[in-house]
Design brief:
The structure is a single chain. The protein is α+β, with helices and mostly antiparallel strands and about 100 residues long. It has one domain: Stage V sporulation protein G (Arylsulfatase, C-terminal domain, 2-Layer Sandwich), CATH 3.30.1120.40. The chain is about 20% helix and about 40% strand. It contains two helices and six strands. A four-stranded antiparallel sheet has the order 1-2-3-4, covered by helices on one side. The N and C termini lie far apart (about 70 Å).
C-alpha cells in the first residue's frame, strides 16, 4: 500500500501577501438632526468596488463606522460587508471618519 510522504511544504499552503486596499469616499450624506447617526457614505475600494450605506455614528467614545446591515428573519442585524483584517477595517474607518471631519 502506497502512503503519501508527509512533506510539510506541500501540506501547508503559503498565503500570498494581501494587496493594499485604498478607500475613497465617493459621496457623503450628512444628517444634522438624526441623533447619534451623523452621516451615510458611499466608499470606493481600489476604484473597483463601491460600498453603499456605510454609517458614521457618534458613540460614547466618539465617532465610529458601521458597515451596511440587513435584518435577518430572526430579527437580528447582519453586516453585508465584512473586512477580514483589523488593518483593513482600521484603514477603512480612518478614511471615512477623516473625510467626515474634514468636510
Amino acid at each position: 500500500m502506497n502512503t503519501p510522504k508527509n512533506n510539510s511544504s506541500t501540506n501547508q499552503q503559503k498565503e500570498a501577501p494581501m494587496a493594499k486596499l485604498t478607500f475613497k469616499v465617493e459621496k457623503m450624506y450628512r444628517l444634522p438632526d438624526a441623533g447619534n447617526l451623523k452621516a451615510f457614505a458611499d466608499i470606493s475600494v481600489n476604484d473597483a468596488l463601491v460600498i453603499r450605506g456605510t454609517r458614521i455614528l457618534e458613540g460614547k467614545k466618539g465617532l465610529f463606522v458601521s458597515m451596511p446591515q440587513e435584518q435577518g428573519k430572526d430579527n437580528r442585524w447582519y453586516d453585508q460587508v465584512v473586512l477580514k483584517s483589523a488593518e483593513a477595517f482600521n484603514d477603512f474607518s480612518d478614511a471615512v471618519i477623516g473625510h467626515y471631519k474634514a468636510a
